[in-house]
Amino acid sequence: MKKTVKSANLHAVNDLRYEDTPFPVCEGDEVLVKIMSCGICGSDLSRVYGKGTYHFPTVIGHEFSGIVEFDPTGELVGKKVAIFPLLPCFKCQSCADENYATCENYDYYGSRRDGGMSEYLAVKKWNLLVMPDSLSFDEGAMCEPVSVARHAISKLGIKEGENLFISGAGPIGIIAGQWAKMFGAKQVYYIDIDQRKLDFARSLGFEEYRSGIKIDCALEGAGHSDALASCLEALKPYGRIVLMGNPSGDMVLSQKTYWHILRKELSVCGTWNSSYSGRAGDWSESLCAMADGKIDVKPLITHKYPLSKCNEAFEMMKEKKEFYNKVMLNMHTEEN
Ligand SMILES: [Zn+2]
Ligand SMILES: [Zn+2]
After folding, report:
1. What pTM did the predictor assign?
2. Of 133, 143, 128, which Cα lies nearest the Cα of 70?
3. Closest ligand to 104 CA?
4. Which residues of 166-200 are buried (b: 16+ CB within 10 A; e: fewer)?
5. E strands of the chain, at which residues?
6. Would you state the pLDDT for residue 181?
7. Three-class SS string for 126-148?
8. Residue-level pLDDT at 315
């Protein structure tokens, strides 16, 4: 067996290295996953160029899928799997209620411990979701953003024929639009500071928001004060808004914006991560919806790089050299 694997290992802010790391050893209830695909999330970009990880070095990546190569019990060998990246403490009240996203003391593949931008990873069995065979590994890696989008949209309780306003036309914003239509939304309107993203949304059957259109419900996906203000302004009286975008600084509301919440009696709700359990939850629903073709993430994957070119991929995204939606790393292609 090989002694090392290739990984994208973050040593410090601005220091992501494609290098050899020790071959993972399975302990306890872990199985060995041969990782095939790992998406680059906006949060990975800010880890590499801004806020780093919780300790260094850390193999980053939390949107990944692969194939089980070793399982001490033999049960899962050869299965295609998607991986829920959060490792709950199983001790707090949230964990007792199976609300793992709000666990008080969780661990996380790709930020608090080594993650998916590697050829192999030892993963706890609890975190594995067996994928339908018809799904590609790239689609399996998209299960994380698809689940995050589903979690947010389901909080809006969209009714048949309602329209939706989304600020931020990145991968999760677009997938959220797909879920909204699946849940009965008539039209989904987007705003974004990047016109290319709006053009992309239009090419997928969505619309660019024009001022004056009154909206039933909104999803704030940009994590920016101006975007939030636009959402609140667009909403009809008694409208609902879910806040999803993770801000990089303070969110500030002017008095005029704040009045929208009061005078229109808006309902404001937050969303975080996604729900996961063997029986139900966003993750199993996401895999089903992709397998049924109701959620189609294939057009969103605009770029694919071999793991060996991870730095090129990150730079392209940081410098916005090309238009991109989801950038995927593939671990076991010939180019590696
Ligand atoms: Zn992510
Ligand atoms: Zn917990």
Report:
1. 0.96
2. 128
3. 2
4. bbbbbbbbbbbbbbbbebebebbbbbbeeeebbeb
5. 4-12, 15-22, 30-40, 58-59, 63-70, 80-83, 86-87, 107-108, 120-124, 128-130, 163-167, 187-191, 207-208, 215-220, 235-243, 267-270, 301-306, 326-330
6. 98
7. HHEEECCCCCCHHHHHCHHHHHH
8. 98
* pLDDT at residue 333, as a whole number: 87
CA of 172 to the centre of ligand 1 (A): 9
Kindly identify the ligand whose nearest atom is closest to the C-alpha of 87.
2
* Distance (Å, whole) CA 33 – CA 45: 24
pLDDT per residue over 74-101, tens digit each?
999 999 999 999 999 999 999 999 999 9
Query: For the residues 266-279, what does the mean pLDDT come to?
Result: 89
Task: Give 22's strand partners.
Answer: 4
Distance, CA 137 to ligand 2 centroid (Å)?
A: 29
Closest ligand relative to 103 C-alpha: 2
* 140-166: pLDDT as tens digits: 999 999 999 999 999 999 999 999 999
